[in-house]
Recover the amino acids of this structure.
């Protein structure tokens, strides 16, 4: 039996984000590979709904590690009640194809060799997520052949504003922001207000995101079958 993919994230911040989450869930379901149940909300709402879904289930986060503080806090409170017919995967991380897509988005936004780059993440409370963001910075820098600074919107230092200002003080003519975020949301306005020459669009929509979520599901399916 194919486990149901239960896509989870916090959707409480704004209507655009909620719409994007449901669009992502629909795109995964349209592939026809697995049944998909979107469960978006607070930790208590997600837990209550997940308990009602018959197994087997694979709970898959619809956010990137270090890129969505509210969803990370929700996911940390997920309780599968010792269900042997359920498992969860980790949030999307430093996947080479996704980092390559982020580099292409930088180029499309106007970044050129010699411009400064700041990877803008959300932050969080988990050291594992911080390591994922560091891995993304390293991979993006290697792909661009250019240094990449890191900045956070919430939770950690340095802030995105600090990172942009530092590059500007170092006489960087132009600074571009690579947004390490899966979905459109209210923070996009904050990023655009920092005075950077360009800001990349969120990683979704991209078929690569759907591919990676389905790969996460296949790995969870194998664990459940073991």
């Amino acid at each position: 039996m194919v486990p149901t993919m239960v896509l989870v994230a916090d959707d409480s911040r704004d209507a655009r984000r909620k719409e994007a989450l449901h669009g992502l869930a629909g795109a995964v379901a349209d592939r026809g590979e697995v049944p998909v149940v979107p469960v978006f909300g607070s930790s208590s709402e997600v837990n209550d709904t997940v308990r009602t879904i018959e197994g087997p289930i694979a709970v898959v986060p619809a956010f990137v590690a270090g890129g969505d503080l509210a969803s990370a806090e929700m996911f940390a409170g997920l309780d599968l009640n010792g269900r042997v017919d359920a498992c969860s995967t980790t949030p999307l991380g430093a996947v080479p194809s996704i980092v390559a897509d982020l580099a292409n988005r930088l180029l499309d936004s106007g970044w050129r060799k010699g411009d400064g780059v700041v990877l803008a993440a959300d932050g969080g409370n988990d050291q594992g997520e911080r390591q994922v963001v560091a891995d993304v910075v390293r991979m993006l820098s290697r792909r661009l052949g250019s240094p990449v600074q890191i900045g956070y919107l919430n939770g950690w230092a340095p802030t995105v504003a600090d990172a942009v200002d530092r590059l500007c003080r170092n006489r960087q003519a132009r600074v571009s922001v690579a947004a390490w975020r899966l979905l459109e949301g209210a923070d996009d306005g904050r990023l655009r207000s920092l005075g950077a020459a360009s800001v990349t669009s969120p990683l979704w929509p991209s078929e690569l995101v759907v591919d990676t979520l389905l790969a996460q599901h296949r790995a969870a399916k194998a664990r459940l079958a073991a």
